Amino acid sequence: EMLGNFSFGQYFKEGAIEYATEFIQQRLKLDWGRVWVTVHAGDPGLKLGPDEEAIGLWERIGMPAERIVPLPSSENFWSVGGPGPCGPDSEMFYDWGENVGCGRPTCQPGCECERFLEFWNLVFMEFELHADGSLTPLPEQNIDTGLGIERGARILQGVDSVYDTDGYQQIMAWLAAESGVAYGESDQATKAHRILADHGRGMTFL
């Protein structure tokens, strides 16, 4: 489930980064030392350089330069999958610590291990992508964000997976009572509980 906020020409990168930082520090009260961010590294095919503006804004808000990681378009550029609105984005990651994941000293967001969890994405919607691959500016610079509620809950509750958060565990407690099989009782039981809980939530939304 995604929590989002939007701006249609009212504020852009500066406002989005300031609001996100305020929410992380003052509302979620996360350890700022565990938060990393990624930015668009640029794309010669789109004739875009690195997102120096976002880098500068993150540094100004207090993010150390070593925790700002440029990544390619495959990771940090949002589009509709073809012609249409698009733009670079900046993602926020939570660091579970050096004892989690691959253990390499160079590990950072973008690594395929489990150390860094992406939990929020700020999309800077400023271009129109055309069929020929060219970009033109949109009439307004817009913001579209998405914060995963289950991932946020996992961070706040300090649990091993989203399935261990309280929302999922309430469903699984009911499944255990009805089936007589507890979550975590076996690998098969864990898988079954996760499928039933996830699909049950999906059907509720539908």
Describe the structure in brief:
The chain contains six helices and eight strands. It has 206 residues and is of the alpha+beta class.
Q: How much helix, percentage-wise, in residues?
A: 25-40%
User: Topology as H/E string?
Assistant: EEHEHEHEEEEHHH
Give me the count of strands: 8
Rg over CA atoms: 19 Å
Q: Which spans of ≥5 residues are poorly predicted at pLDDT below 50?
A: none
Proportion in β-strands: 25-35%
Strand count, sense and barrel status of the largest sheet are: 8 strands, mixed
Distance between the termini: 13 Å
Count of discrete alpha- or pi-helical segments spanning 4 or more residues = 6
Q: Whole-number average pLDDT? A: 96
Helix/strand class: alpha+beta
Keywords summarizing the entry:
alpha+beta, 206 residues, eight-stranded mixed sheet, 34% helix
Please characterize this protein's 3D structure.
It is globular and about 60 Å long. The protein has helices at residues 13-27, 52-61, 73-76, 149-157, 166-179, 187-205; strands spanning 2-3, 6-8, 35-40, 68-71, 77-79, 84-95, 116-129, 135-148. It has six helices and eight strands. A hairpin with a 4-residue loop joins β5 and β6. The two termini are 13 Å apart. Strands 1, 2, 3, 4, 5, 6, 7 and 8 form an eight-stranded mixed beta sheet that branches. 34% of the residues lie in helices and 28% in strands. It has 206 residues and is α+β, with helices and mostly antiparallel strands.
